[in-house]
Amino acid sequence: MRAASTQARGLSAVLSKNPDDVVITFSKRTPIGRAKKGQFKDTPMDEILHGLFKATLEKTKLDPTKIDDICVGTCHPPSPLYVSRAAALAAGIPHDVPISTVNRLCSSGLMAIRNIAHAIQSGETSIGLAVGAENMTLNPRPTPAISEATDANSEAHDCIQPMGWTSEMVAQTYKVSREKQDHYALISHTRANDAQSRGIFAEEIIPIEIKGKITSADDPIRGGVTIESLSSLKPVFPQWGEGSTTAGNASGIGDGAAICILTTRERAEREGMAVLAKWIGCSVVGVEPKHMGIGPIAAIPKVLAQAGLTKEDVDVFEINEAFASQFAYCVEQLHIPIEKINPNGGAIAVTHPLGMTGVRQVVTGLAELRRTGGKILCTSMCVGSGMGAAGIFVNEASASVASKL
What we know:
Thiolase_acyl_enz_int_AS, transferase, Peroxisomal Thiolase, Chain A, domain 1, acyltransferase, 19% strand, ten-stranded mixed β-sheet, alpha+beta, two-stranded antiparallel sheet
């Protein structure tokens, strides 16, 4: 049996507070830019990261010399480690602070959190930054290439296919109708538009300065989306399956970054850092590449079992909406009330900058728990090539405390 990655088991243990707990003391995201047309379409990833690092240090007053390590989750920029380190240096982080990058596609941001959390648990790191970042305008998904010998294996062939193909395969195999996909898409668009109009996202966004201009609000979210407008859209992948995926019921591509500061509870209390949340653990699974989108169906039960929790113990789920086909199937197979899932909309409405999403979901979910007084957050996403990931976090802050950060 594979080893579990969590130590605390059961609700009381998860909610307990111990000096060696890994905790989050700061969690924010940049505004999100709509790919190709939005506010970051001409902004390279290093500039977005530079702006985020600089704004974070200014807001938290964290002495950058105290940072032990940085991990950036990102997928497609060329030379990601070089540009990430350059951005950190330009923001005033000393050259003796090391940095790494991690790419597990759609879960890369969550893997950055996981890497820093594990380093803290091992005693190798005391304070670390976990970041997720992507500019999909300037760095779109490259077409994977494999040899003819490798491609002869059917699953190897499937794992490099376009994600739109996997959406159609899920819809076709599991009988997820176009009507059902549009229904779930409408929920996402409606919730995100409502959240933006009520200023909810402003609580989780840290404004950043790019080329002398302050950017502070998302630009991809569309108002006025109706079931009629969704049903009128033409399929974007008519060549595959039944052609039920559209621009309205799939995640948009976007640009942005998000960050969490992690340390031990003992260090946070000693340094006078506010504790926002406690890290519990993470799961990663593999699924059939052809049906990549069903990853959360395996990842969520696994991480709950590791923590000794039930679905009922979780107050908010942030499940990435890569496509409405896979999202609808995951929601219904997991038997989780939709009221608990993505209460302020998801990637169908706010877009899915690949490397950013894993941290963005944590930022968004924790902010929602602070507003509502909830405790347990479970995040999850399907992962390109046929995987899934999930994480558990405990909110420990009120909205009034977080508003001061």
